[in-house]
């Protein structure tokens, strides 16, 4: 089962709710979910702390008992909290929603890259074993995660800066960690991809979508910045399945920045295709699929794959391996290229 979903009603919910909506609080302001749970736990048993939205500055604190929520709101609302860095919290009651799962999808989900017919796109199932998956998860969990609004990340080789969607090539973080060496060796052995594989990959971003974020949280449509990375991009999926959707916008509607959410997608003209990424699979983006197609993870909690319904896991980790570009991009898709704008 996925995590519960909460709403903050336009009018204040009555005091029978054990759930609190807390603003000015979250990883984006330097407060971990563990720390928030610890502070609110002084008022009663906390069932969980969840992201209220994608901002990283608002959370839902869910208590076992409504009396605990009442006490916490009374003591913490509108007052500086020394245990949370002196921040003044803005709190009101929240209610748990029981939305029906919408399993209808406007685009069919494929289970193989060949079904999509997107040039340069490959998907290899069971790229690693279950034991190797466990070892990789253990390796990254021993290292510190950096908190972002939607996920937690680790960067190796070079840090990817999300505010500018690029890397600083002058700041080398060191060689890639030893735990990805078997993956790199296996990638180099993929001769069946007709030369689409970069032999030298020097940047790794590990993303951790964990149970402190609702399973419906995904990624917005984007193309990995052309000037940041060259050649092929590999994405290894660990421990949780998901759907990845690809979009190719027409030249007439493309203006550099397409819709960042599904709310205004009707105003743009694009082709949509989706693929199912099972755990332990690796996805390769090269050529047209890398340079001209936007990719993203839809904000679903349940995905319909063929005739099956698959619920998003409580955790998904992805390893994205890339090669940092040292000069401007000279690809064949200038309308999508920041180097050739």
TrEMBL record:
GO terms for biological process: demethylation. Residues 200-325 form the Fe2OG dioxygenase domain. InterPro entries: AlkB-like (IPR027450), AlkB-like_sf (IPR037151), ALKBH4 (IPR032857), Nucleotide-bd_a/b_plait_sf (IPR012677), Oxoglu/Fe-dep_dioxygenase_dom (IPR005123), RBD_domain_sf (IPR035979), RRM_dom (IPR000504). Residues 18-96 form the RRM domain. GO terms for molecular function: demethylase activity; oxidoreductase activity; RNA binding. It holds the Pfam family 2OG-FeII_Oxy_2. Keywords: RNA-binding. Belongs to the alkB family. PANTHER family: 2-OXOGLUTARATE AND FE-DEPENDENT OXYGENASE FAMILY PROTEIN (PTHR12463:SF1), OXYGENASE-RELATED (PTHR12463). This is Uncharacterized protein. It comes from Dorcoceras hygrometricum. The lineage of its organism: Eukaryota, Viridiplantae, Streptophyta, Embryophyta, Tracheophyta.
């Amino acid at each position: 089962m996925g995590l519960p979903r909460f709403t903050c009603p336009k009018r204040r919910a009555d005091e029978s709710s054990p759930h609190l909506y807390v603003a000015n609080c979250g990883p984006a302001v330097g407060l971990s979910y563990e720390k928030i749970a610890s502070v609110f736990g002084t008022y009663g048993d906390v069932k969980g702390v969840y992201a209220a939205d994608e901002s990283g500055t608002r959370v839902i604190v869910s208590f076992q008992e409504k009396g605990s929520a009442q006490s916490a709101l009374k003591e913490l609302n509108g007052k500086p909290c020394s245990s949370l860095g002196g921040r003044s919290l803005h709190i009101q009651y929240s209610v748990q929603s029981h939305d029906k799962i919408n399993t209808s999808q406007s685009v069919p989900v494929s289970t193989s890259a060949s079904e999509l017919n997107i040039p340069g796109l490959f998907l290899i199932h069971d790229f690693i074993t279950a034991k190797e998956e466990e070892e990789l998860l253990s390796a990254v969990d021993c290292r510190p995660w950096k908190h972002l609004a939607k996920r937690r990340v680790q960067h190796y080789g070079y840090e990817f800066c999300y505010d500018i969607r690029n890397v600083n090539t002058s700041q080398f973080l060191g060689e890639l960690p030893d735990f990805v060496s078997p993956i790199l060796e296996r990638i180099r052995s993929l001769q069946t991809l007709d030369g689409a594989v970069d032999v030298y990959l020097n940047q790794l971003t590990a993303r951790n979508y964990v149970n402190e974020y609702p399973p419906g949280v995904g990624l917005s449509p984007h193309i990995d910045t052309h000037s940041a990375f060259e050649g092929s991009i590999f994405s290894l999926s660990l421990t949780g399945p998901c759907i990845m959707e690809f979009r190719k916008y027409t030249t007439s509607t493309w203006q550099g920045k397409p819709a960042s959410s599904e709310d205004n997608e009707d105003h743009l003209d694009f082709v949509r295709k989706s693929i199912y990424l099972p755990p332990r699979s690796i996805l390769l983006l090269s050529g047209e699929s890398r340079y001209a197609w936007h990719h993203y993870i839809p904000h679903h909690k349940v995905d319909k794959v063929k005739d099956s319904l698959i619920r998003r896991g409580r955790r998904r980790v992805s390893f994205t391996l890339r090669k940092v570009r040292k000069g401007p991009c000279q690809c064949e898709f200038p309308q999508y290229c920041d180097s050739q704008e």
